[in-house]
Amino acid sequence: MSGCTTAKASAGEPCCAPKGEPSIVEDAHMQRALDVVPASPDIQADLRGTLRLVPGGFFDMGARKSSHAGDLDAPRRKVKVAPFAIAPTAVTNAQFARFAAATGYRTVAEIEGWSFVFHLLVARPQANPRVPVGMPWWREVPGACWSAPEGPGSSIQAREDHPVVHIAWYDAVAYCRWSGLRLPSEVEWERAARGGLARQKFPWGNAFEPAGRRGMNTFEGTFPDAPAAGRTWRGTVPADSFEPNGYGLFNMTGNVWEWVADRFGPLPGSTEAAPPEQSRVQRGGSYLCHASYCDRYHVHSRTRNTPDSTTGHAGFRVACAT
């Protein structure tokens, strides 16, 4: 994760998160992840036992028509997936804290000394003037990391059940190494997110707010400066908020972007050539998604970022084969 060098997003580039130029220490980050000592068999078995089973089979992946052509999430195509198991929630602060305490692992943000924080969550934005080009709602905050989500003076106290954030793809790999689990593939992630429904936009159906109730945590108000009146704007919410989908999975859309295993490229079955980049795919949207800016809060939505990039709305969930 290098400096704030992000160019303004174009029609062919993601607009959901800032990223830096490829880091010269990416190989070192990967090696650190692979050097993590796995947890004991008992701990790994306990973690595996919390996962939910998702049946295999064919399903319709992707959108009929993409809202963002550069996302390469259309057209729909029939994809087959083997049965697998996946966590009911994104990895929480408490779960990541257990891992960090057991291994002494330091995240990319901790090593590099900073991460991106959404400006409304920064106590003194004027003290953190560095912003990525074209994304003034982000601030480069020294000291921001998973255990201090808004920078020095902040903590995860009273947010132990929220999804962990400021996580690079390499950090997710490190957790997987310890837990004996893995990141889901992109195909698995979308199969899980759909919860058994076919050709629907959300884990519960096609309505953004079914029966007038919110089903996920996305930005309410006028993005990026004016949260909805009467609401205490809070960023993340507990990882098991809202109703689960048909497979018993929470927050498959909204709350935090979730890293998956795949490099970014066309979806399976596409005849398009893969773009010349090493970015990894993120799925599900986040608490910053909004119809006026980035409506990537559907089960087919995708974005990408470099594997060493960290932001205050990036987390992950784990999976395994059955």
Structural features:
about 325 residues; alpha+beta; paralog of FGE (formylglycine-generating enzyme); 4-stranded mixed beta sheet; 3-stranded antiparallel beta sheet; 6 helices; 13 strands; globular; disordered N terminus
Polypeptide structure, described:
The protein has helices at residues 26-34, 41-48, 93-103, 108-112, 169-179, 186-194; strands at 52-54, 57-61, 77-81, 84-86, 114-118, 138-142, 221-222, 226-227, 257-263, 280-283, 302-305, 314-316, 319-321. It has 322 residues and is of the alpha+beta class. It has a single domain (28-321), classed as paralog of FGE (formylglycine-generating enzyme) (Alpha-Beta Complex), CATH 3.90.1580.10. A hairpin with a 3-residue loop joins β7 (221-222) and β8 (226-227). The protein starts with 25 loop residues before the first helix and ends with a strand.
Topology:
Blueprint (H helix, E strand, L loop, with lengths): L25 H9 L6 H8 L3 E3 L2 E5 L15 E5 L2 E3 L6 H11 L4 H5 L1 E5 L19 E5 L26 H11 L6 H9 L26 E2 L3 E2 L29 E7 L16 E4 L18 E4 L8 E3 L2 E3 L1
Parallel strand pairs: 9-12
Antiparallel strand pairs: 1-4, 2-3, 4-13, 5-6, 7-8, 9-10, 10-11
Helix pairs in contact: 1-5
Mean pLDDT: 91
The portion of residues assigned to helices is: 10-25%
Q: How many structural domains can be distinguished in the coordinates?
A: 1
Helix-strand category: alpha+beta
The CATH topology annotation reads as: paralog of FGE (formylglycine-generating enzyme)
Number of helices: 6
Strand order, main sheet: write it out.
Answer: 11-10-9-12
Write the CATH homologous superfamily: paralog of FGE (formylglycine-generating enzyme)
CATH architecture descriptor text: Alpha-Beta Complex
Please tell me what the overall shape is: globular
Task: Indicate the low-confidence ranges by residue numbers.
Answer: 2-13
Strands, total number: 13
Based on CA atoms alone, the radius of gyration comes out at 18 Å
Distance between the termini: 34 Å
Strand content: 15-25%
Q: Could you name the CATH class?
A: Alpha Beta
Main sheet properties:
4 strands, mixed
Q: How would you spell out the order of helices and strands?
A: HHEEEEHHEEHHEEEEEEE
